[in-house]
Amino acid sequence: MVFSPHRIQHTTNDVLLPLIGRRIRLGDHEYTMSSAIATGPFSSVFLVEENGIPYAMKVEAQNKCLRPVLKLDHAVLQALGHQTGFPSLTASGRTDTFKYIVMQLVGPDLSMLLEFAPERRFTPSTVYKIALQTLDRLRVLHEAGWLNRDVKAQNFAVGLGEESNIVYMLDFGLTRRYLENNGSPHLLRPHGPSVGTFPYAPLTSLGFCDQSPIDDVEGWLYMVIHLLKGGLPWHNATRSLNLPKVREWKMYCRRAGGKHHLFDGLAKGWSDVFEVILNTSHHQKPDYHKISQMVLSIAHSENIDLSAPFDWQVNPVLRSLVRLGPLSCNELTVPRSSLANTTMPETILHLHTIGSPIGTC
């Protein structure tokens, strides 16, 4: 039996979900469709395996996709997949039915890990190390000429097994080039879309203005504050989201009274980090080194041990989520994936790929 996508006009979920447990051929690669990781109306992610190695395959409908963004994931990962903290890109292409990229499989995102953490909080050591790594991911992304525009815990994930000490940046559907080919920045538009997730979006975005690298860093700070405090003045378990109110809060937090609410309970150094961000113009390159040194200084003043393992490396429940075995005095062991014991069906489904690369779609 040969699977032919040419006659099917359904969504990628309609096409691929029935293929779970079967083998398919995409170009020069032969994969086993193992399970669905995440399915949605715009794109879906599937766990696939080739030669015993698991990968993540992200797919998007070839035609009539309501929000075609896979080319952005492809462009960013093609440029940065060799950098620490960015999943490596293994393959990409398209069939008559869908476009796809196959990339390194990483673990759960920070938001999911937080759900299983005691009292839904990470220890200060883990949060500070997350802050340092995610800031550096933004630096690398910006230096490559891209803006993230959606900095939040859901868009950072943890590596699996021995790579569980690495925080990866994921999901580049809202990224945008801000540098010309010659390295000069694009001219900022007088007006732009409000892009991002309300609680963490910078004030610039909520004011419908074009964003620049320092706006990503502002969103990064809101994410870190949320991880440290368990919430933000404008976003917590008892406060519903409202864009105008969030915008008012972020304007208020630029004044003394608002800063008190935002940084109440935190070390003073964090308000100093906010001042550095506020004093960086949209045409300036953020001083990533200065900000990271400030974070290190705060950690030192608070007696936070940054050499301690991440919470998901010591908590038994979280360890299982990142595929670490039982705690050992000598080493962290990675259990064999259940995929290695999966019996492969004999039928191979051939999905005929189209010649043009995904990056040109």
Automatic annotation (TrEMBL):
<dbReference type="InterPro" id="IPR000719">
    <property type="entry name" value="Prot_kinase_dom"/>
</dbReference>
<protein>
    <recommendedName>
        <fullName>Protein kinase domain-containing protein</fullName>
    </recommendedName>
</protein>
<feature type="domain" description="Protein kinase">
    <location>
        <begin position="31"/>
        <end position="296"/>
    </location>
</feature>
<dbReference type="InterPro" id="IPR011009">
    <property type="entry name" value="Kinase-like_dom_sf"/>
</dbReference>
<dbReference type="GO" id="GO:0005524">
    <property type="term" value="F:ATP binding"/>
</dbReference>
<dbReference type="InterPro" id="IPR050235">
    <property type="entry name" value="CK1_Ser-Thr_kinase"/>
</dbReference>
<dbReference type="GO" id="GO:0004672">
    <property type="term" value="F:protein kinase activity"/>
</dbReference>
<dbReference type="Pfam" id="PF00069">
    <property type="entry name" value="Pkinase"/>
</dbReference>
